[in-house]
Please model this.
Amino acid sequence: MKKLLFITFVFLLLHLSVSAADPKIEVSFAKGEAGDKVLITVSVSNNPGIAAFLFDIDFDETKLTPVSITNGNALTVGSFNYSIAQGVKVMWHNTLNITDNGELFSIEFEITENTPNGEVPIILTYRSDDICNHFLENVDFTITGGIVEVVSSPQPDTGGNKPPNNSNNVTQEEVKGDEDNNLKEIVIEMIIDNPLVRINGENIVLDQPATILNGRTMLPIRFIAENLGAKVDWIEETQTVVITDETATIIIQIDNSVAQVNGKNIDLDQSATLLNGRTMLPIRFIAENLGAEVEWDEKMQTVKIVAFHYACNAIN
Model:
């Protein structure tokens, strides 16, 4: 089963300049046997200036398990946030851009027992979102590499398949209990037509519960958005809701089947509607556009939303 681990990466150009060479992001190669731990590094060269980053990383979860994440030597300042408790999440941001070349971060993986010989791709995808109130300009760059080769016998160490002895390495268990980590996990659980909702284990009663309308699960916009760390504004004159967070601006009008996300029109299969004085919207649309994952259990009629909120005011 393939699982999307998303580590998102954002480039910020504070001062756009012409460079003779294009910026490059290189994902390293590693080699090991089933059961081994291998290290994949993500490095930058011809750096035009970075003030924040997010990456999406995709790999075969049946063959690799993430173990630890370490910030690299290019990130000597700023706030480095991470979690691998519910999929790999990494964010870094700083008050000023850095132009150093070198390692941005590394991920240690364990190769699953009985994994057959062959190559396991590590696919890194750029996501050009604004983050932490930085206004971003896209950078043309090339992403290369990203392979774990599984072999049946020990191979000579080339320096790329063993993690360094670095005290900054943090394991999954440590990340989950690290109160100083600026990456806060949010888990929202609810049952259709039940006003009782659980947020990180705490019970809350809604005056308008989740409901199904025309085959779509609907939830009060303000409740879901604010609990995912977003700001919600209501414009009475135009019956419009404006939702903003570090990465998205969403504009929704009552009974309008077209919403705007970061200036782009998005067709809704169920438009926002008023129900008992509450603005209701398809839960999957609003949650996923605020960076959350939605799980639906048809048999139990339950919805689970998992998200990570970045503390942008914790810049070192």
